[in-house]
Amino acid sequence: MNSGMDRAWDGVIAPPIEGRLSKPRSTGITMVLDKGLGVTALHDLLETAADWVDFWKFTFGTSVMYPRTVLEAKVRLLHKHGVFACPGGTLFEVAWMQQRYDAYLNRLMQLGFGAIEISDGTYPLSLAERQEAIRKAKSLGLKVLSEVGKKDPGDSQPSSVLYDLLRSDFEAGVDYVIVEGRESGKGVGIYDAKGEIIEEDLGVLSQDPQCVERILWEAPLKSQQVALIKRFGCNVNLGNIPTEDLIALEALRTGLRGDTLRDVVRKRVAK
Amino acid sequence: MNSGMDRAWDGVIAPPIEGRLSKPRSTGITMVLDKGLGVTALHDLLETAADWVDFWKFTFGTSVMYPRTVLEAKVRLLHKHGVFACPGGTLFEVAWMQQRYDAYLNRLMQLGFGAIEISDGTYPLSLAERQEAIRKAKSLGLKVLSEVGKKDPGDSQPSSVLYDLLRSDFEAGVDYVIVEGRESGKGVGIYDAKGEIIEEDLGVLSQDPQCVERILWEAPLKSQQVALIKRFGCNVNLGNIPTEDLIALEALRTGLRGDTLRDVVRKRVAK
Amino acid sequence: MNSGMDRAWDGVIAPPIEGRLSKPRSTGITMVLDKGLGVTALHDLLETAADWVDFWKFTFGTSVMYPRTVLEAKVRLLHKHGVFACPGGTLFEVAWMQQRYDAYLNRLMQLGFGAIEISDGTYPLSLAERQEAIRKAKSLGLKVLSEVGKKDPGDSQPSSVLYDLLRSDFEAGVDYVIVEGRESGKGVGIYDAKGEIIEEDLGVLSQDPQCVERILWEAPLKSQQVALIKRFGCNVNLGNIPTEDLIALEALRTGLRGDTLRDVVRKRVAK
Q1: What is the band of A3 on the pLDDT scale with cuts at 50, 70, 90?
Q2: B30-34 and A237-242: which strand pairing?
Q3: Do B12 and C104 touch (CB under 8 A)?
Q4: Residues A27-59: tens digit of each pLDDT
Q5: pTM, rounded to two decimals
Q6: Nearby residues of A164 by Cβ (< 8 Å), 6 or more positions away
Q7: Is the Cβ of B97 closer than 8 Å to some Cβ of chain A?
Q8: Cα dist from B231 to B56, B158, B205, B206, B224, whole Å
Q9: Which of A152, B81, B116, C172 is the most exposed place for a label (fewest CB within 10 A)?
């Protein structure tokens, strides 16, 4: 369950849900959504929770607002703790729209980011452009996360279209495909206006079990995290996790919170 | 109102609601719900707000995720500021389920926790088991908080059953009985699906005025805190307070926020 | 867009929405709602985001709860970063109710606050009292922010009454007039019970374009921030911004988040 570090309850409590993978892991990924933590707050959080996070998203264009020294300090801290730093997809979209993608990649490498998100949530990309963007990023050795899904409900696409795009992205070599959930988790992607999962859409996107291991579901709300853990197991890939919920999510994954412990209890009692 | 510390507005502003007790207090307890603050963040918060918090809950199984050194540093800081550290009730339930309660108590003492929560929110306990758990914890000198109420709406019990359990827990020697409210405050315990108080259930649980002084109502939402302060006064015991609301709650208790100031104003204007 | 500081993406990404003013600015103000950050957390946040905040509200009576040394340390930090510290309006109302306004002003100056909020959200003020309060604060060289609007829905006033008060406050010399939105942003001021803008009320309050530059809309919810930016431009004055949303708001103002980027994209695509 962990990276060999001495844990507070080792030898006393065993996680009720077994099989949680430790870092570095290729599935069971957690990606955080960071809206602007300071350097001290990041250091503080990583000291407690670095083992429970794999990717760190400086969400949408927030990284533009940082003093360069502050951003670089954060990226260094993340690297030191084995977490991939990644700018938000919207920043990629702006760079592409402004025809500055090469400059964007150069700066991203200079700043020390280890991952990139390629999306068309707001700015439309042709399939050829998308594949070019992915190819260039891959050639630099970056972890590449593409995203399917639109940010505005008025632009939404059928899940079958998203599925085709997802397949095509995997063929183009991306590491993970993100399914858009925004910060709100409502009225977007696989979620209805109340934030509940639309089963039919989830079914279409997850039809290929092999793909599921590399789909990263944005799931900002606890109810979504619970539902996806119950559906795909404790090593489902989850994104847009609020920084303050990082440890609580790990408790959900391992059955140390009522919502996921309950099924374990029921099976025991039924025996 | 405070522990003798020099406050910013001393001599200028008197709290509009009088009678708030200072620490150490046996009623007027505030219990925080901590989902994973780092050591620096905890230190920072206690420096500002230690006088306004009595119990600190490392909620559900989150403390399992901590490096032992980090958890111990947090517990020491809390002790230094006169705050009882307490693991979540779900962790007790897992330990009991795994038949590791003695080991759980030993480690809890080693780690420096000063309080324990004994609950059956997810894992069922017989009355005899419950009393055995309480007795063992009391014998170690721990503050014992038992909890009544189920986490899942599908398991909910009538308030008369909860009231009988509450009485029985007091007879068994617990310091406080917590009424379950979860982190959400919705569809659980005395709260309906919108988080509003179900008056009938509140009435049943609070029928004995002497008990009320040792009932700790989980009340994560501001509307719930306001309603309970109006009902039981500024020294009502409140739990599951988000760490970032600790100071705001104290303002509510003392009439320094519109929601509770309003009644004071109305009485003055009516004179 | 910034104060000359070296930014992470300078020379690569241009803000899609142009014209955002840098500090010190008289319009395009952001006011934060602080419920009790510690000194370290404040330092950490200002190091990242000081350029994006103009006024810092120690909301309602929270500043009463601070040890004096902690409050003074926070106020000094804010001053150093060019941010005006301001107690909440409710604290003014309590001081006025307790007939301690002169003492309140003295202490406020001693503590180093640079701004004051004058409101009648809970405690009623006559027009003469309001103008006296404004005049005294102005004579001390404070930035004066008055507020229109009641905190309790049961006390609400027609927008035409609020508009007359707003005009009168500007004539009395206030720097900004705040339109009440509370922390929740629901069922108060220009917002309905769901937090959506009531267009008619917004229209009445914003009928004079010159006034709008000095109206500060409390807008705690993202949807409100988006709507007001779309309506009045990137330099609209916004208040009650949660501290953790400070950088995200600046991304909204400059088109670096999908919600406001979308209109830029549509205009480009339409060309």
Answers
A1: low
A2: unpaired
A3: yes
A4: 999 999 999 999 999 999 999 999 999 999 999
A5: 0.96
A6: none
A7: yes
A8: 24, 22, 13, 11, 10
A9: A152
